[in-house]
Write a structure and sequence with these properties.
The chain is mainly alpha-helical and 157 residues long. The protein has a domain at 66-157. 55% of the residues lie in helices and 0% in strands. The protein is built from 6 helices and no strands. It has helices at residues 46-59, 69-88, 93-101, 103-112, 118-129, 134-155. Helix 1 (46-59) packs across helix 6 and helix 2 (69-88) runs antiparallel to helix 6.
């Protein structure tokens, strides 16, 4: 093999093989299955079994620095704030909708900063796509409430 100026062999740095360290040393997590996250009609198990399985998948991030409860709580808190505003004044839903859907951009930004993973961005995007009314927003917020409760169980933070 070729030697570089520092005396290391070409290829992997320092002979390290396999996955990059910033990925957590293991294979990337499985892609999140969002098929059961349906707000209309509301699936019977949405706030129990579905929220539990999504929380487990998000908690199983290979990078322990991503998907921390405090980071995900910020997204839930903002979603709750929008739901409360709409609940107080339902006729403002259409005016608030662009700002609600901006949570996708905020999740993408957090992903770029390695604070959340792709699965959380997928969850946010899939959920917000279904928000087309004040009632959808209420269900979305309630789903995230259940998700956060189960996340606490799996993350143990």
């Amino acid at each position: 093999m070729n030697q570089n100026p520092r005396g290391q062999q070409g290829g992997q740095r320092g002979g390290q093989q396999g996955y990059r360290r910033d990925r957590g040393g293991g294979p990337p997590p499985a892609k999140l299955d969002t098929s059961r996250i349906q707000f209309s009609p509301v699936e019977e198990e949405l706030f129990s079994d579905v929220a539990r399985s999504v929380a487990k998948a998000i908690a199983d991030s290979q990078d322990r620095n991503r998907n921390k409860s405090t980071q995900l709580r910020k997204f839930y808190d903002e979603l709750s704030m929008w739901e409360e505003r709409v609940r107080r004044s339902p006729d403002t839903f259409k005016d608030h909708l662009p700002f609600i859907k901006m949570l996708n951009a905020k999740a993408a930004y957090a992903n770029g900063r390695k604070l959340v993973d792709d699965n959380f961005c997928t969850l946010m995007e899939h959920s917000l796509k279904q928000v087309n009314s004040a009632e959808d927003l209420r269900i979305c917020k309630t789903f995230f409430e259940a998700f956060m409760g189960f996340l606490r169980q799996y993350k143990g933070e």
